[in-house]
Amino acid sequence: MTTVLVLADITPVDGPDSALPARLCASITLIDPPPPLAIVAHGQLAQLLPAIALAQRSAHRRTAEYLLVEPLLPPVTDTWPDAPVTVACADMTCAAATQARLRGWTVITLDEAPTWLPAD
Question: Which helix (H) or strand (E) holds 67?
């Protein structure tokens, strides 16, 4: 069964704001969720996904899927995304939806996001 990890629900360990990605990764390590993971990020938190994905791979936790809700899209790198990506947007013509489609990612409406389930 896939573990859904909502970044907004994770309290980062103490530290400076500039180290937020590392602080979130440390919190995820403390939680020790069983893989595979479906990672959900909203808005600016989506920018942290490449770093979080690297930390999960380092911890030998497979990521099965990402759900980005009204995201500020992270850059695509040679190591991210390492799993399918779904983007949920209120406006299906917004920049994030358009860029997601160009990247070959799935785009859904915000109305569909509450019923979204990761692929098993």
Answer: strand 63-69
